[in-house]
Amino acid sequence: MRSVDEIAALTSWHADWAGLRVIVLGLGVTGFSVADTLVELGAELTVLASRADEEIADLLDVIGVGLVRDGFDDAFDDFAPELVIVSPGFAPHHPLVQRATSRGIPLWGDVELAWRLRDKTGKTAEWIAVTGTNGKTTTVQLATAMIAASGKRVVACGNVGVPVLDAVRDPIGFDVLVVELSSFQLHYLDSMSAWASVCLNVAEDHLDWHGSPEAYRTAKAKVYERTAVACVYNLEDAATREMVERAEVVEGCRAIGFGLGLPGPSDLGIVDDIVVDRAFLDDRHRSAIELTTIVELEAVGLGSPHMVANVLAAAALARSIGVEPHVIRLALRAFRLDHHRTETVALADGVRWVNDSKATNPHAAAAALESFDSVVWVVGGLLKGVDVSDLVAANAPRLRAAIVIGVDRHAVVDAFARHAPETPLFEVDTTDTKEVMPTVVRLSAAVARSGDTVLLAPAAASMDQFTDYADRGNRFAAAVHEMLGGGADDDEPPATSIDEL
Description:
Elements: H1 4-8, E1 21-27, H2 29-41, E2 44-52, H3 54-62, E3 66-68, H4 72-79, E4 83-86, H5 95-102, E5 107-109, H6 110-116, E6 126-131, H7 136-149, E7 154-158, H8 164-168, E8 176-180, H9 183-187, E9 196-199, H10 207-210, H11 213-221, E10 230-234, H12 238-246, E11 254-258, E12 267-271, E13 274-277, E14 289-293, H13 294-299, H14 305-320, H15 325-334, E15 343-348, E16 351-355, H16 362-369, E17 375-379, H17 389-395, E18 399-404, H18 409-419, E19 425-427, H19 433-447, E20 453-456, H20 469-484
Parallel strand pairs: 1-2, 1-4, 2-3, 4-5, 6-8, 6-9, 7-8, 9-10, 10-11, 11-12, 16-20, 17-18, 17-20, 18-19
Antiparallel strand pairs: 12-13, 13-14, 15-16
């Protein structure tokens, strides 16, 4: 039986992992990547998961790892693990997590394991870490595109793209990993020392998992710990500045701000609709470098305020690792947004139909709503303990009507009754998943007028009625095209599915 100190000392792929007894909690894409990695290292392991995709379960059997689907307490005791690797879905209050904690067994997430194993190949990649309540995926993709355009071998990984363990095991190796980190992953992460890091913004989310807003912010703040070169923060979100101020970083690490106003020295911002860098140049007190313009960003769908903020953050990360300004400009000209992020799926009879199913919390929904003047708002789902009252109150003047979906409809309807009682409100109470979006589209079409935007920005998670946010967005887009038939503009493509890790 290895001691806690001996396990803490496992900080290299080339350390002695053989025979280490590990329990893996959960068997999604992340859980399997953990199991596959540990088998390669020679560890002994078993996976505890009540739900498992049968294809993944079959792969687990192929690599010789046991899967326990129930009777977890007995399985845990019988196996007597020396280490527990936790998939992101397991909250700190989960009984199995509590069991490990009470016995003093080390608990790591997959990102913690990946950081310790990052030296598998001769090329050890620098890590750029991205978190925030909203905008993570777009910022990761933007930064990845900018760095790739500079000629470096780079991959987006973590909570988007490929699992981070798959990236560190790549036989060729990468120059840079751009790692999207959820608050769940950060909670179980304690060793990472990123080249550059950013928390884009902080708003209440996942309170059911973390237990309190304070615990959620504490998890997000861990992204800055031990950062080596640049802590990038949001000038318009004081919480992110406070996180940087409190972080223990590598000596010489700089704080780099980004915002939509005039930038100070060591900031990126906007001057006369020009996106500029006043951080990564020698004479930053008296000059700035042009990166792109708002007009150019609008041409590729990045012109809304929240998207410009993402561009600024990504540019700061890319500049920190040496990407030249003209390369950033070229990368932005070629960039295309993913589906389900303020994506126009149809335009017919003066009504724009927009899929922002990725808006799974009020902060994201607010950014989407603020992009349009007159909205038929499709809202609701699984609220995760978050109150939507402020969101409703702030956006009532722009609402033509609201269509409420999901299991937590009562809370949404109550918010409208208190803060927007004059807004026409329609509830979709069907329990048939196949009928939710066709009903939404019929109701929306009946109230929308020329110049309106029908906006799916639910401010809630999707798993109450759909597989994930992509499934929700795909069903919305399909229902819109089914209703419009040939009436939609040909240049507005329907959404297609993407993976949600």
